[in-house]
Amino acid sequence: MLVTRTEAVEYHATVREMPISDRPRERLQYYGPETLQTAELLAIILRTGTTQENVIELSSRLLQKYGGLAGLMRADFGQLCNEHGLGTAKAAQVKAALELGRRLAALQPEDRVQVRSPADAANLVMLDMSFLQQEHLRVLLLDTKNYVVHIERVYQAAVHNHDWCPPRSRH
């Protein structure tokens, strides 16, 4: 008598199977990094998930387990390496990305841009915004000495495909 054991396998959609408009890399490309959730940004760094969870689920689990980015920053390298879905390469990527963020946050005010005039403000966003195909509204957040703390996109008009032409009538 042959007895076979079947286990229910839970299906996890990969990022490639997601609609393009929901994929983190594409959303970052078209709408900017500030529009992504922390788990999605981490997913871009990690690149791949496991057979049990896609990369967004993996990122969410890590953020939940360690209490967010600060917890991941405090986590020991070996501890991260032992997480299912991570190894030395992915743990190194996470630690490197977090360290870059820490170093950026630690920059002295003299290393940051100071806005002294409307022209300074325009120059900060001019290059980035000069080739946009739709309307954007950006807000510069400054500290009390007019150093840029953050540039926030607060509005973006809908994307219109101007390359599309209606079919010609055959009259």
Write structural notes for this entry.
By secondary structure, this protein is mainly alpha-helical. The protein folds into 2 domains: 15-105, DNA polymerase, domain 1; 109-156, no CATH class. It contains 7 helices and 2 strands; from the N terminus they run H-H-H-H-H-H-H-E-E. The chain has helices spanning 24-31, 38-46, 55-66, 69-74, 77-81, 88-105, 118-129, and strands spanning 136-142, 148-156. Strands 1-2 form a two-stranded antiparallel ribbon. A hairpin with a 5-residue loop joins strand 1 (136-142) and strand 2 (148-156). Helix 2 crosses helix 3. The longest helix is centred in the middle third of the chain and has 18 residues, at 88-105. It is flat and about 80 Å long.
What does the secondary structure layout of this molecule look like, with pairings?
Elements: H1 24-31, H2 38-46, H3 55-66, H4 69-74, H5 77-81, H6 88-105, H7 118-129, E1 136-142, E2 148-156
Antiparallel strand pairs: 1-2
Helix pairs in contact: 2-3
